[in-house]
Design goal:
By secondary structure, the chain is α/β, with parallel strands linked by helices. It has a single domain, classed as Rossmann fold. The protein has an 8-stranded mixed beta sheet, with helices on both faces. A two-stranded antiparallel sheet has the order 5-6. It is globular and about 55 Å long. 46% of the residues are buried. The model has no long low-confidence stretch (mean pLDDT 96). The protein binds NADP nicotinamide-adenine-dinucleotide phosphate. The site of NADP nicotinamide-adenine-dinucleotide phosphate has 30 residues, from α1.
């Protein structure tokens, strides 16, 4: 068995936070990585700060701005042509959260930007790489060991997008809810900025985009048999000190990690979150379809990941089918 069948994993958003901290465990498990970032320069710099020269040999960088569907197409082509290798696992991690915007930011195609980056960009990336992923060799070599690996897609979800959990029912600015999807149905271009077609609420726009991420997992799992591919999501815990919160008020950034560490006990370090993502995306024990993996909202030492109950807003067959099909239409895939 040649060296060229080393397992290959793609991960988005590795300049900081959870994504950056997922690199080291993936490399330790023996994976080759394609790190997708909107700046290769920043992606490399961040990786070099935490990885050894040897580890850097197994990581390649591809520049894609996920807000721009054209860029996603170009980058996916590059991945397919230049690497010309079967992809075994895709981790959709990148995200943007801008809760203080007064007006929506727009992607190059004119969509509300957090939906564009978090959902549309990843949705397109997955679909463009899916054929390769589905045909990826089942036998790969990790750290010298030959093993069977079923293709895998892992998407970062969150508690605030899951109405079944307390954190998903926080009314400020509003829980995630796609309503009747009238924003998507009506083209999702200005002046529309929310999936439900209602007034722009930036914090809700983020939650809605993560709800779409979690719906994508459920719907893709229905459309592609678990014999061929495993698709799941996870909530790694509250990683309260990442750059995700860079657009929140400075006092919030100061107090939020303290609140999560000592009051809710939901705080998870970036290192632990990265380890969790790497395991969910690659370990055999997590190869169960359509599971939303969680370690709960109160972190306890030694706790194992479990399948978190999902709200009707995520699993409702009609909403998830519609959200999936409308997304395809909006991004020009059907
Ligand atoms: N932090 C938490 O408590 C928490 C909880 C639940 C789920 N999550 C999820 O975990 C994931 C990682 O978040 P994090 O907390 O680690 O945040 P983070 O440190 O801000 O990382 C986000 C990553 O996404 C990248 N990104 C943003 N916009 C992009 C674009 N247009 N194109 C390509 N990449 C882009 C960022 O790159 P740039 O440097 O270029 O901006 C960065 O590498 C997200 O999906 C988030 O929803 C986080």
């Amino acid at each position: 068995m040649g060296k060229d069948i080393k397992g290959l994993v793609i991960i988005t958003g590795t300049t900081s936070g959870v994504g950056l901290n997922t690199l080291k465990p993936l490399l330790r498990f023996g994976w080759q990585i394609i790190a997708v970032n909107r700046s290769n320069k920043r992606g490399k710099k961040a990786a070099e700060e935490i990885l050894t020269e040897n580890e850097m040999q197994n990581i390649h960088f591809v520049e894609i701005d996920l807000s721009d569907l054209e860029d996603v197409r170009k980058g996916s082509n590059k991945i397919l042509k230049e690497f010309n290798k079967p992809i075994n696992s895709i981790i959709c991690n990148a995200a943007v959260y801008k809760p203080r915007l007064k007006r929506p930011e727009r992607s190059p195609q004119g969509f509300e930007n957090s939906m564009a980056v978090n959902h549309f960009g990843h949705f397109l990336l997955i679909n463009l790489l899916l054929e390769n992923l589905l045909s990826s060799k089942r036998k790969i070599v990790l750290n010298g060991k030959l093993l069977i690996f079923k293709p895998r897609i892992t998407i970062l979800g969150t508690v605030t997008a899951n109405y079944s959990e307390l954190g998903g029912r926080i009314p400020i600015p509003a829980p995630a809810n796609l309503g009747n999807l009238s924003g998507f149905k009506n083209g999702f271009l200005s002046p529309i900025s929310m999936a439900n077609g209602k007034r722009f609420k930036p914090g809700k726009a983020y939650k809605d985009s993560k709800l779409c991420n979690m719906i994508t997992v459920q719907e893709l799992s229905k459309r592609y048999s678990k014999e061929k591919i495993i698709i799941n999501s996870l909530y790694p815990g509250c990683v309260a000190d990442t750059n995700l919160f860079r657009d929140t008020p400075w006092l919030f950034r100061l107090l939020f990690p303290i609140f999560q560490k000592f009051i809710t006990k939901g705080y998870v370090s970036q290192r632990v979150a990265g380890e969790r993502v790497a395991q969910i995306a690659t370990y055999k024990e997590y190869a169960k379809p359509a599971v939303h993996w969680s370690w709960g909202n109160r972190q306890r030492a030694g706790r194992k990941a479990f399948s978190q109950k999902l709200s009707k807003r995520i699993v409702d067959p009609e909403i998830s089918k519609q959200a999936f099909d409308l997304t395809k239409k909006l991004i020009g895939l059907d």
